[in-house]
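Service request form, structural biology core

Requester: graduate student, group of Dr. S.
Request type: structure prediction, single chain
Budget code: on file
Notes: please return the result as structure tokens.

Sequence provided:
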Amino acid sequence: MHVPEEIRAEAATLIDHHALGLWKPNDADRRTAVALYRFLETGQPLTGEQIRSTLAHAETAADVHERLLKLLRAAAALLDDATVADGPAGRDAVDHVCLLLDAVALSRLTGQ
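Core staff response, request fulfilled:
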């Protein structure tokens, strides 16, 4: 998953799976999404470094769903390539990743 279209497709699939209840984000997924969503709340664009930093400092990064982890790493790599990230396909892919982060960040904790 290295091209924007693949990142967008995977983010859209995870959004759909979450909405349909086929994937229920765990607490580690939610905490990671909340941490990244806080960057989005500043109004500044998300960066690859912010994603990598969040994944490196997540309390339970090992517990983050493998597909989400792979998607976030791919999104970080995409964001590192400004030429691709700033193009229409790159912006669309990042928008879908941000929509997924929003949905997961707002989901309920497993224990609740």
